[in-house]
Write a structure and sequence with these properties.
The chain has a single domain, classed as Rossmann fold, CATH 3.40.50. 21% of the residues lie in helices and 31% in strands. The structure holds guanosine-5'-monophosphate and magnesium ion (2 copies). One magnesium ion (MG) binds next to loops. Pathway: Purine metabolism; IMP biosynthesis via salvage pathway; IMP from hypoxanthine: step 1/1.
């Protein structure tokens, strides 16, 4: 275990097994359709890479850079779209993937934006959902794991840009730098 990790919350094998089941659910909901998957960067890149390789090949994959935490441990309350252009989703069915559902503002803002751009259906999937009252009304269609309201790192999630490459999800040690 890394020295800055307090405890492993979800082990690597447990995540991988759960992704098998999530991929099955998604396949059943979009049988034989070419959907546009929008991966929210940076946090969702590990989750998306593992999940999407379990889905049929007919996918269009786009990325969207959004930020709300700015490296720290608290949501800033504001969702920034960092790209100059959005993927073209007019008339398309879209699946948005994010690492974690916290206040809900990110998924809410992205889903609203894609709907405004003409997407015919927007579904959302997250690896983790925190058990708390959300600031924005939103629910993810696919959730890997429900977790408590604590700050987590690993498997894409960072603390000050680090720990994204841990293969498991853990909590940060209180005396991590
Ligand atoms: P929301 O908009 O739902 O409040 O926040 C979603 C975003 O905040 C996530 O995509 C993620 O980037 C960041 N975030 C929320 N909770 C955590 C957490 O426990 N750890 C880390 N590293 N990022 C988090
Ligand atoms: Mg994020
Ligand atoms: Mg972050």
């Amino acid at each position: 275990m890394e020295q800055d990790v307090d405890k492993v919350l979800i082990a690597e094998e447990v995540i991988q097994r759960r992704l098998d089941a999530m991929a099955l659910d998604i396949r059943q909901d979009f049988p034989g359709e070419v959907i546009v998957v929008i991966v929210l960067l940076k946090g969702a890149f590990v989750f998306a890479a593992d999940l999407l390789r379990r889905l049929p090949r007919m996918l269009e994959i786009e990325c969207l850079n959004v930020a709300s935490y700015h490296g720290g441990m608290e949501s800033s309350g504001q969702v920034d779209f960092l790209d100059r252009r959005l993927p073209d989703v007019k008339g398309r069915k879209v699946l948005v993937l994010d690492d974690i559902l916290d206040t809900g503002r990110t998924l809410r803002a992205v889903a609203d934006r894609l709907t405004a751009e003409g997407a015919t259906e927007v579904k959302t999937g997250v690896l983790l959902a925190k058990d708390k009252k959300r600031a924005a009304e939103v629910q993810a269609d696919y959730v890997g794991f429900d977790i408590g309201d604590e700050f987590v790192i690993g498997y894409g999630l960072d603390y000050q840009g680090r720990y994204r490459n841990l293969p498991y999800v853990g909590t940060l040690s209180p005396d991590a730098q």
